[in-house]
Amino acid sequence: MIEYNETIEEFLAQHSADVEEAVRKAAAAEIMPRFRQLAEHEIDQKSGPHDLVTDADRLAERYLTGALSSLLPGSVVVGEEAVHADPASYEATRGDAPVWIIDPVDGTRQFVNGDTGFCTLVALARHGVLLASWTYAPARDQLATAVRGQGAHLDGVRLRSGAPEPGRDLEIATSHPDYTTDDQKRALLGLWTDGVAPRSCGSAGLEYLAVARGELDAIAFSWEAAWDHAAGILLVEEAGGAHLTRTGEPFRITGGNALPFTAARDAATARRVAGLLAGGV
């Protein structure tokens, strides 16, 4: 535990490893024992058949909420499952206190299906500014981290997103149609053009990691829930990438974005994709 008067920068310098340990322990205690072992009564629907929640989601978020709040006194937590229960708690992303933004199991559908393509996402922000993030894929034993101004790393190795190869189609992961309005569908249609190869996305956190690694050129997403994007946005930024809404403004984790938006390997690609999204409306 740190003293309340310690700065966020000092906290990150001294306690990033403690956050990493909390993320790993949450996965080991609550997620991995249920992987490919879920009983039917441990799976529920939220808004529909594509929006699932499991006991692993709920219990891992509870674990992380307690652990991270204890590490940083005065901080608050915005977790996907807590916000589902109390939507007003999302307002903490706009408050003065440091906020932990948590998605306990990003890619719940993959988790339920026994696929390894899921992860735990944690980000630390204040006044809408992302300060640090942790992306942990426990079934693959991969941990990606980012600290503002200090770069992004995967298992300790520096990530550099680079730029797409000239002349090759841009590979872009896009929102599932079930999560798009008619207006957003029209915007995303702008990606169905020569020189672009769109596909449906999997776990948002792992798609961001693919962009940061230079394995995917961009994402184009139509929803703005902070727990899905905060960790990945900082990871991409610190790897050298950029993010823009379809009106050309940076994506804000506090909301109010013009959707869809993109995060890409480099600024030129972000501008190109944002332009295609704007032209598709």
Structural features, described:
It is a single chain. Helices cover 33% and strands 26% of the residues. The chain contains eight helices and 14 strands. The chain has a seven-stranded mixed β-sheet, with helices on both faces. The chain has a five-stranded mixed β-sheet with strand order 11-10-12-14-13, sandwiched between helices. It has a two-stranded antiparallel ribbon with strand order 1-2. α1 packs antiparallel against α2 and α6 runs parallel beside α7.
Q: Concise description?
A:
This protein has 281 residues and is an alpha+beta fold. The protein has helices at residues 8-31, 55-71, 80-85, 108-112, 182-188, 204-212, 226-238, 267-279, and strands spanning 43-48, 51-54, 76-79, 99-106, 119-126, 129-137, 142-147, 151-154, 157-158, 170-174, 196-200, 218-221, 242-245, 261-264.
Give the oligomeric state of the chains in this entry, treating copies of one chain as homo and distinct chains as hetero: single chain
Mean pLDDT: 93
Shape: globular
Strand order of the largest sheet: 3-4-5-6-7-8-9
| Percent helix | 25-40%
Whole-angstrom Rg? 18 Å
Write the layout of secondary structure elements.
Layout: H1 8-31, E1 43-48, E2 51-54, H2 55-71, E3 76-79, H3 80-85, E4 99-106, H4 108-112, E5 119-126, E6 129-137, E7 142-147, E8 151-154, E9 157-158, E10 170-174, H5 182-188, E11 196-200, H6 204-212, E12 218-221, H7 226-238, E13 242-245, E14 261-264, H8 267-279
Parallel strand pairs: 3-4, 10-11, 10-12
Antiparallel strand pairs: 1-2, 4-5, 5-6, 6-7, 7-8, 8-9, 12-14, 13-14
Helix pairs in contact: 1-2, 6-7
